[in-house]
């Protein structure tokens, strides 16, 4: 649902128009920190899969500035995201990109924030981790990325994006209802765990990464790592054992065979694997050429419900921090 008090739609159109007007665009950088960085990974995936002329790079904001890509300049678009608009590394990255002549487009919830001030174009979004609105950051990043692809290359998949995004809230509601029992069991079974791994591939790796670093490590102080399903066989599978917990996301996209291979192995040697399958969640109802670009959003919203319940069972609210925002770092 659109919030007509926000200028989001006009800002999104302005951003796409600016990208269209650039003489050359060779590179699109997706730059942020933490959970906002995780949101950039599906956008990088979209660009890699769809663009014939633009290379995509998702980078942590401090890494982006330190790396100072030699190609960064007038033929670059730098898309940045910060919920608060205040994360210093992201603000610095935006300033650096502007100085290099790149088109800077930022997504933030806070008008007038340092990031908003420093960027050429801002898009304001609404944030609710359990709802999937078309004016929240994950959907806006998909719309912006596909919008740029359509404006510069005539990409036609974009035509299916809005219809798919509009179906997601209903899909999430059904999935949450269908998983009610599994969510309660998961929370009880995992409330004393000190480690939970996440695993995925393709665009869903972003969701696995986000849940490993933001939810389990940051908000629950549970050890975790996001394992890429393709990389699982090249080191991580050695930690698999009957009592080691995993959450595995199974795609309906190009990476599904990678997920299948990892699931076959991990479920053979661990008794504690939670598999969330995009097909079983009802994502098969979406057009086949769009589904892999929107499934990370559905996995993210469903996992949030799993983790809210887990946090409750553990008596550890998702809002508690030891270091973040508590001290200098
Ligand atoms: O730049 P943002 O989106 O405000 O993020 C700031 C912080 O919020 C998180 O994304 C989640 O708490 C952290 O990972 C990050 O350090």
TrEMBL record:
This enzyme's EC code(s): 3.5.-.-
GO biological process, one term: UDP-N-acetylglucosamine metabolic process
Pfam families linked to this entry: SIS (PF01380)
Primary gene name: frlB_2
GO-annotated molecular function: carbohydrate derivative binding; glutamine-fructose-6-phosphate transaminase (isomerizing) activity; hydrolase activity
Chain ranges of the SIS domain: 12-160
Cross-referenced Gene3D superfamilies: 1.10.10.2240, 3.40.50.12570, Glucose-6-phosphate isomerase like protein, domain 1
Broad EC category: hydrolase
This protein's UniProt keywords: Aminotransferase, Hydrolase, Transferase
Name under which the protein is recorded: Fructosamine deglycase FrlB
């Amino acid at each position: 649902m659109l919030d007509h008090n926000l200028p989001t739609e006009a800002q999104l159109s302005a951003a796409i128009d600016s990208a269209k007007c650039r003489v050359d665009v060779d590179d699109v950088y997706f730059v942020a920190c933490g959970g906002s960085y995780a949101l950039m990974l599906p956008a990088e995936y979209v660009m890699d899969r769809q663009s014939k002329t633009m290379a995509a790079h998702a980078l942590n904001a401090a890494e982006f500035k330190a790396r100072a890509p030699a190609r960064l300049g007038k033929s670059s678009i730098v898309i940045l995201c910060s919920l608060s608009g205040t994360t210093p590394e992201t603000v610095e990255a935006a300033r650096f990109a502007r100085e290099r002549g790149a088109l800077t487009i930022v997504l933030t919830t806070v008008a007038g924030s340092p990031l908003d001030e420093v960027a050429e174009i801002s898009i304001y979004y609404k944030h609710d981790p359990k709802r999937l609105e078309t004016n929240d950051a994950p959907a806006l990043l998909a719309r912006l990325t596909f919008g740029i692809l359509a404006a510069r290359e005539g990409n036609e998949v974009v035509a299916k994006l809005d219809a798919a995004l509009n179906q997601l809230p209903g899909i999430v509601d059904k999935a949450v209802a269908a998983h009610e029992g599994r969510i309660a069991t998961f929370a009880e079974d995992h409330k004393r765990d000190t480690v939970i791994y996440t695993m995925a591939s393709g665009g869903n790796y972003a969701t696995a990464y986000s849940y490993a670093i933001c939810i389990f490590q940051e908000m629950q102080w549970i050890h975790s790592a996001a394992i890429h399903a393709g990389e699982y066989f090249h080191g991580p599978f050695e930690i698999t054992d009957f009592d080691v917990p995993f959450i595995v996301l199974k795609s309906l996209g190009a990476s599904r065979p990678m997920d299948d291979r990892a699931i076959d192995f991990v479920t053979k040697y661990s008794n504690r694997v939670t598999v969330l399958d995009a097909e079983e969640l009802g994502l098969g109802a979406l057009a086949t050429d769009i589904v892999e670009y929107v499934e990370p959003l559905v996995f993210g919203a469903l996992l949030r419900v799993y983790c809210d319940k887990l946090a409750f069972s553990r008596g550890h609210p998702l809002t508690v921090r030891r270091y973040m925002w508590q001290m200098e770092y």
